[in-house]
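Before relying on records like the one below, remember that each one covers exactly one chain. Contacts with other chains, cofactors or solvent are not represented anywhere in the record.
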Amino acid sequence: MNTENILDSLYFDDDADISIIRQKTVAVIGYGNQAKAQALNLHDSGVNTIVGLREGSTSIVKAKSDGLKVKLIEDAVRESDVIVLLVPDQVMSEVYNSSIHNNLSPESMLIFAHGYNIHYGLITPPLNVDVAMAAPSGAGKVVRSEYLAGKGIPNLIAVKQNHTGKALDTILSYSKAI
């Protein structure tokens, strides 16, 4: 395997500046296991967090009762700097194409929990946004319980597209917040 173009690095809490993500509005799309944990952790970390859901979603009441702002996906995307897609893979490209793509602002960031939809070309982000991955090494319940215990879990990160030149700093900051 040719590793000439691969950057392997380990980052720790001290390598991430949480103030970067605190200066942004983050839309978490979905409210399943991982989305709920990440949205709550972001909120508790002092990040302006919006949960984006489809009209009529049964998760609207849950997210609101958890103290989070909830908006339709399109509105959440338009109002956010960072959009985190945490819906199931089998519907992600449809959600992206119908509700996210045309509502993205230039220089915003898309975050995925893994690279399936990007790698296989099911989602093609515009060139004027950052694209990154933040993949916690645990289920949402563990992400949340470790956060509440004042700890964290390892998080795999990747930057696919660095339009702003700040994608690595932003994904590190996001990772620290969750």
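The CA atoms of residues 112 and 133 lie 5 Å apart.
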